[in-house]
Amino acid sequence: MEIASIDYIILFCLLLAVVAFLYSSVGHGGASGYLALMSIFAIPITVMKPSALLLNLFVSGISFFFYYKKDFFKPKLFYPFAITSVPAAFIGGLIPIENNSYKIALGLVLILAVLRLLGFFNNKEREMTKIHIPLAMGIGFGIGLLSGMLGIGGGVILSPILLFLGWSSIKETAAISSLFIFVNSIAGLSGYFLSGKSLPTESFYLVPIAVFGGMLGAYYGSGYYSNKVLKYVLATVILMASIKLIV
């Protein structure tokens, strides 16, 4: 990794654990946060995408386990999205995207993540409505394709949509998003591998750190209220990264 000194490595690892903690607490894998951090620390794009997907896989799986144990997972709300998102994420993982386009698209996605962390999409739960399956399948395809191309699980996009449409409660949304991210990450990595690429060695060094933060976050988030102060700090970090990518 292109990090100047041991101090930067320690700082990066600490922030990575915080990102995993915060995202897993709301049922996410944290890819947008990992990508933001890696961008700030000038880690090459060739390392960013596969590393984010790998960490996403572990953290979202842990998050789903904890939310599932609390009985927040509703299969009928999950399947319509997954049916179309998984093949779309696989296709997206096969599509090469040039550096400038990647940075701009990722920057825009990160702004969405900032808005969600600041509570723009989930301050209040709307009146519950019945899921519209054809629309859900279309949404799943679009999110899956974008997720595979950018190296994210798509939860940061799916969650606000679920809450805005009133298809699930906040806790149910967290459970659905975590499994959605998990399966999309598998599909995205599969497409990445089939394109002839392999995981960089750096990716594996980051897994234990993300798992540690993810376990704490999932335990805390599935049973307790999230820490608003840390969310604002994370939102600031991601916003800085998105500006850096877009400008």
Automatic annotation (TrEMBL):
GO terms for cellular component: plasma membrane. Keywords: Cell membrane, Membrane, Transmembrane, Transmembrane helix. The chain crosses the membrane at residues 6-24, 53-68, 77-95, 101-121, 133-162, 174-194, 203-223. It is a multi-pass membrane protein. It holds the Pfam family TauE. It is found in: Cell membrane; Membrane. Belongs to the 4-toluene sulfonate uptake permease (TSUP) (TC 2.A.102) family. This is Probable membrane transporter protein. It comes from Flavobacterium soyangense.
